[in-house]
Amino acid sequence: MTNRGFFDSDHKTQCFLLIAMMLFKTFFSRLALTLMLMVSLMASSIAQDASGGDGIPTDEATISAGQSLFEDNCTVCHAVHEVVVGPALKDVHERRPLDWIQSFIRNSQKVIQSGDEYAVKLYEEYNKTEMTSFDFSNEEINSILAYIKVESGKTPVAAAEEPAADGASATQAGASEGVSDFVMYALVINLVILVLILIVLAMIVRVLTKYLEQKSDLDVEDQEIISARFSLAALFKSKPMIAIMTILFVAVITKTVIDSLFHVGVQQGYAPVQPIAFSHEIHAGQYDIDCNYCHTGVTKSKNANIPSANICMNCHSAIKTDSDEIAKIYAAVENNQPIEWVRVHNLPDLAYFNHSQHVKVGGLECQQCHGEVETMEVVRQEAPLTMGWCIDCHRTTEVNSKGNAYYDKLVELHAEHSKEPMRVEDIGGLECSKCHY
Amino acid sequence: MEKTNKRYWKGIEELKNDPEFVKHADKEFAEYLPINESKRAGDNEGPSRRDFLKMMGFSVTAAALAACEAPVRKAIPYLNKPVDVDPGKANYYASSFLLGGDYASVVVKTREGRPIKLEGNKLSSFSQGGVSAQVESSVLSLYDKQRFTAPQKGGQNTDWATLDKEVMSKLKEISAQGGKIALVSHSLISPSTNKALAAFAEKYGNVETFVYDPVSVSAIAQANEWAFGTKVVPTYDFSKADVIVSFDADFLNNWVNPIANAAQYAETRKVTKENPTMSRHYQVEANLSMTGANADYRAALKPSQIPAAIANLYNAIAKQAGRPTVNAPAVKVSYFDSMAKDLWNAKGKSLVVAGVNDPYVQVMVNAINDMLGNYTTTINLNQPVLTRQGDEKAFNGFVKGLNSGAYAGVFFLNCNPVYDNPHGTAIKAGLKKAKLTVATSDRKDETTDAVTYVAPDHHFLEQWNDAEPTTGHFALAQPTISPLFATRQMPESFLAWTENKTDYYTFLQNSWKADQFEQQSKFIDFGMFWDQCLHDGVFEPAKGKNAATAVEFVGKPDVCAARIAKNYKSADVELSLYTKFGIGTGVQANNPWLQELPDAVTKATWDNYLTVSQSMAKELGIEMFEGDSQMVELTIGNQTMEVPVMVQPGQAKGSVGLALGYGRTAAGRVADGVGVDANPLVAMVGDYSNFYAGGVSIKAGRGKYRIAQTQTHQTYMGRHNVIQETTLGEYQKNPSAGRVQPEIVTAEGKVKPKAVTLWNGHQYENHHWMMAIDMNACNGCGTCVVSCNVENNVPVVGKEEVLMRREMHWLRIDRYYSSDADAGDLSGLEEASDNPEVTFQPMMCQHCNNAPCETVCPVAATTHSSEGLNQMTYNRCIGTRYCANNCPYKVRRFNWFKYHDNTQFDMNLSMSNDLGKMVLNPDVTVRSRGVMEKCSFCVQRIQGSKLEAKREGRPLEDGEVTTACAASCSTGAIVFGDINDPKSQISQMLKLKKDRTDKVETVEVGEERAYAVLEEINVLPNVYYMTKIRNKNSKEVKA
Q1: According to the model, what pLDDT value does residue A176 have?
Q2: What is the chain A residue with the closest CA to B862?
Q3: Does A340 touch chain B (CB under 8 A)?
Q4: Would an 8 Å CB–CB cutoff place A436 in contact with chain B?
Q5: Mapping DSSP to helix (H, G, I), strand (E, B) and coil, where does residue B91 land?
Q6: Is A386 near chain B, with CB under 8 Å?
Q7: Is A308 within 8 Å of B87 when comparing Cβ atoms?
Q8: How far is A170 from chain B (nearest CA, A)?
Q9: B855-858: long-range contacts (C-beta < 8 A, 24 or more apart)?
Q10: Out of A336, A337, A436, whose CB is closest to B875?
Q11: A354-402 pLDDT, tens digit each
């Protein structure tokens, strides 16, 4: 009786349990999914975090512009209070007239060749080290001088404060890291809680299943639900399955073939071993040397130019002279045998590409196409350099028309019939003869 | 508008309506094109299935292998980068073209230290910014494998120390024995070189210099001595002449200073509504020359009768001037009376020139010019031209002396008299009697083969030098590349043999410091003066200072007339020798660009041939059909040679013509064995070489011969409004005279073709490039064709391929003959073809706004740009050739073969070896087999100049962008520019009005002379032509 009664009530319970089990199963899978999402979120947040910025806000715009120009271009060879490769620049604006400084910065060799006494003396004094020419405007040079003037006013001790300022910025950066750490902790805690819930749910489902299995008086249908086992063999033999799999298989193969065909000749990731183990990480990263310093053609020519050995010698005639790798440069110079670098970025002959168009006119950063070269120990080809890649950028990039009188008419005409900004494609940037001739 | 009833024909086949011609006229390619080269004789079937499978298997394997791994490419920077060289950026240097006695001031374009293109230097008042086909192509001669890589002794390489030692010991030996030394050269125009030679002469004593010019005008200098007491070749100014009469002087091609002549001549031929005047040009000649083709009136005359014609003209003018007449043999010259009348009416504004190299004839010409008062206007005796200093009288003495053993030492300074002098054979024989024979040519030729020592000179692009083409007008040449081989500059060699250790650069500077620097007061520092001269390329202290002054004529016309009557006897058949614009005297015969440049008139490439009149061809039983010709045996005296025949309209009856500059035997892969050498046929009249010979007999020779002409290709199928022309009188009455205004019949009546269109039109916001070609200024020379080849890496395909009609030139110059007889009057046409009018029409891609080629390309490889260009994308092209079929102008070229790195095309020097490849323009793709190509409006130049403007943040200015053809055109016939700039030269010239209604632009051309070729098909070309205007009296047209 009780038995029977129990059975009745038990049957209800069983039904309830059955539903509960199915609910838990669903919940479990959903939760697992959420968890995976969270983990990936965390991973990406970590990645983003690593590229967090810095920078000290300054009040006077010119001086700060001058400072950044100075730091980007000059610090390789010059400091304000001490001799590095070139002379100390303290009070340089008092030593030489402004126009002399301007012409010397733009083309020091020209000044020296013109027979300027001071310039020749300077040249002799610094072991005939050629100063690289910089294509600065007068305003830019003035801003650098403004910065030097300010710096000259400070005592060398003041200059020594620099590290302290750096420290301050470091703590600031640390604080910003702290904020993101907090989010991280919260996420980790959430994760742990969720994993625990998951384990509990799994246990409940398992217990319920076991309990229900022991019951012998279940409906055939319920029985099926509980003992539902996945029969792989049957599934694989089913006709729809075979059809689907065949279609999938053909599709995957086709896609792979097409993809691989599209990648014939694409050398993305190509990072050949170079004859000299030159590290961009050290030069462009650690020492923050401007790309222009070595790749001199980038603002005026089609080619950015692999630097000639005399550019290396600007610094390496004095710096790290005992290194084996740098000895290779000396050997090249002595034997009059140019260094045969392996070309990393190879465009096909049928495509015309001009660096100055993109860097000088377009105002693009080198990194946009070449990736974070300053972090590369060995340079690799970051972008695919395919036509699709070029075109994509031409479709989305706005023309750097500000302050360039060449574009004035185009901007005006574009504004007449469109409210969108003028992109490269709007002025014929997708046409064949822009790159193929 | 009246319809033109003139009939235009590209060749005699078309004129005669030859059934064979008609059969092929509508086909692009005349015959079946055999692609399968390996087909054996008798094997009539195409490629077999097995061949197909083999080829497919191979291509699949090759493709798979090629795809495996990209080759490792090196990037090799400079060790020590020169300050002013940036890889990828061109540098330009002013320099001088100095070759074979010719001179032009040029601007050299270099890339990564390699000269790749020459253009004219506008600062020079001698060459006036012009260039010639020879100048344009000379940059390839720099990279010729034929050049000597080291000094030679007996045909073997040696070193300079050995050569110097041996040459000097022999020189001392000769000097000790009192032997004579001869220096043989073309006109020496370098003052510094002359100084070095003078020092050499002083050291060894007994040194004599002999100068000759391959196309000699030494009779002009002699005649001036007799007539005015000054032995010079004067400066002629065609730009001041209203009436020009030329007796066999091909002054646009080879006479005195052809580059400047052409520019000045064109100035007088440009007609505008504001200034509707032009010069009138009479030409009396035997061969239809390039100059004659441009004449308003041309009289065909046997060469022996031309001196008599000059004497008759003298009489006609003398009657008017009141001077005594002379006894002149009667000769019938067409248009003679109007010629004399026009000359007299244009007193002081006329010019009579003669190409006859006979001082007696030239004195008559001087007398005519004197009576016309031209010696203060168009002829300037105070400003002698120094590029033609040849003295044949002295030279003949040298040849005699050489053969009698009078000269112990002979030096040939950059000249090749064994080949290009009439005495070549005698010189070669005489050289055996000399103890020391030295040549300084930079490459192997017939003369270097005949001497013991060769001290090779630098190419002119590798050297420091100076030049004085006309008195007081100096120029500098600077090296634009380091010497490629172990060569040494010619004057430096002479300095070395004089035991002067100075290098020539220092010597040159010292020479300028002593002479030229003293002739100016602008600079006080020599360094600054030198830099300025180097920058400008020229230094002209005498510019405008040596104005012409009145002269007193003391010649004796009666004596000269008697000589003329005695010396010139008419023969049944006479030979008249000439030079072509491209090959010239053969100095650069090994340059394939020149060999493949079609002759201006005959449109033949890779050959010389006997031009004969139609009546003579009929007598000989020769029929010529589309280049299929026959060989004949040409006999003059004891000389016999076999030459092919070219039936040439306009050839004077009883005369035949043959070009010099061919038949080289030691010039190299390209030139050897091409054509026949006509130099031995140059006759001597007295002391002067005369380029005509009487007593010629012609016999039908053995066999057939094919001449590779680009002439009868691509007919316009009777659409005769391609050329629109009128006379000056008609133009003055109505500026639209001669224009054909086609109309289309629609349901609403007749409308302009523009009104009926399927096209949506384009909108060109930034730039709209357009070209205008003045057919009055174009003289058909073909410099633009070579310039285009150099700029755009156009391959040379060789004679066989030209015969197959597969020449690759992006720009061709169509030459149309026309005659006035009715189109139906065939016999009238036949007669008129004896002396047809000629029109030249440069034809290149017309960059149609409604381009028929673009619509038929299945892969969109040819598309339209937002600047009006019709773009051709090689990497997209799959070679269906639909575009070429659909092009109404037939300007597209298909790469039937891979022309680069192909041993079968080793005559294509600029692409077949590493040295030659240095001339390629790195900004232009070298096309591969199976793709279409065509004129791009020099898009690389457009892009380059745009970028320059963008970098400097300023709008593009007119004149910054120009195409290679326009830049090289000495006459300014081609104008290129942006019509969106209302101030540009082209906008002004075409008087353009642009309307922009929502998305569609219409361009109205206000200039009445401007027309688009084939306007009725409404493809809206971006190239406009200006009607040809002849300065003829309307009544006389039918004469």
Answers
A1: 44
A2: A432
A3: yes
A4: yes
A5: strand
A6: no
A7: no
A8: 39
A9: B855/B886, B856/B882, B856/B883, B856/B885, B856/B886, B857/B882, B857/B883, B858/B882
A10: A436
A11: 999 999 999 999 999 999 999 999 999 999 888 999 999 999 999 998 8
CA distance A202 to chain B (A): 52
- Residue B583, amino acid: I
- ipTM, 2 decimals? 0.82
Q: Does A264 touch chain B (CB under 8 A)?
A: yes
Measured between beta carbons, the chain B residues lying within 8 angstroms of A333 are 79-80
pLDDT above 90 as % of chain B:
46
- Calculate the average pLDDT of chain B: 86
The yes-or-no verdict on residue B52 having pLDDT over 90 is no
* Residues found in chain B: 1039
Q: Is B83 in Cβ contact with A308 (below 8 Å)?
A: no
Q: Compute the count of residue pairs across chains A and B with CB atoms less than 8 Å apart.
A: 160
Asked whether B1014 and B740 are in contact (CB, 8 A), the reply is no
> Which of A307, A342, A350 is nearest residue B74 as measured by Cβ atoms?
A342
Taking each helix axis as running N to C, give the angle between helix A61-69 and helix A138-153, from 0 to 180 degrees, rounded to the nearest 10.
100
Q: What is the mean pLDDT of residues B862-869?
A: 92
Q: Are residues B796 and B937 in the same domain?
A: yes
Token pair listed for B87 = 């890889």
Question: What does the pLDDT read at residue B1034?
Answer: 63
Q: Which residues on A lie below 8 Å from B917 (Cβ)?
A: none
B89/A338 touch (CB, cutoff 8 Å), yes or no: no
pLDDT (0 to 100) of residue B42 = 47
- Residue B569, pLDDT > 50, answer yes
Number of domains in chain B: 4
How much is the pLDDT for A358?
93
Q: A178-215: per-residue pLDDT in tens?
A: 456 788 899 999 999 999 999 999 888 888 888 877 77
Which of residues B654, B683, B709 is at a domain's end?
A: B709
pLDDT, tens digit, 9 for 90 and up, residues B208-243: 999 998 888 888 998 999 888 889 999 999 999 999
Model pLDDT for residues B89-108, shown as the tens digit of each residue = 999 999 999 988 889 999 99
State which residues form the domain around B592.
Answer: 571-709
Of A301, A349, A357, the CB nearest to B86: A301
Q: Name the residue facing A404 among B871, B950, B956 (closest C-beta).
A: B950
Give the nearest chain A residue to B955 (CA atoms). A406
pLDDT score for B712: 64
Encoded tokens for B482: 């380091």
- Determine whether the interchain pair B73/A342 forms a contact, defined as Cβ–Cβ distance below 8 Å: yes
What CATH number does residue B509 fall under? 3.40.50.740
Q: Which residues contact A240 (CB under 8 A, 6 or more apart)?
A: none
SS3 for B263?
A: helix
CB contact under 8 A, A352 and B943: yes
Instruction: State whether B753 and B616 are in the same domain.
Output: no
A313: closest CA of chain B, how far (Å): 10
The shares of helix, strand and coil residues in chain A, as percent rounded to the nearest 5, are 65, 0, 35
CB contacts of B868 in chain A (<8 Å) are none
In this complex, do A340 and B80 lie within 8 Å of one another by their Cβ atoms?
no
pTM, two decimals, is 0.79
CA A172 to chain centre: 23
Q: In what helix (H) or strand (E) does residue A15 lie, and over which residues does it extend?
A: helix A2-50
For a pLDDT cut of 70, what percent of chain B falls above it?
91
Q: Does A219 touch chain B (CB under 8 A)?
A: no
Q: How confident is the model over B342-364, as a mean pLDDT? A: 90
Say if the Cβ atoms of A409 and B955 lie within 8 Å.
Answer: yes
- Residue B692 zone, left/alpha/beta (φ > 0; ψ -120 to 50; rest): beta
Residues B883 and B1018 in one domain: yes
Report the greatest alpha carbon distance in chain B. Answer: 99
For the domain made up of A1-229, give the CATH fold.
Answer: Cytochrome Bc1 Complex; Chain D, domain 2 (1.10.760)
| Annotated domain spans of chain A | 1-229, 238-262, 386-437
Looking at the fold, whether B629 and B600 belong to one and the same domain comes out as yes
Cβ distance A311 to B81 less than 8 Å, yes or no, reads yes
Q: pLDDT value at position B717?
A: 47
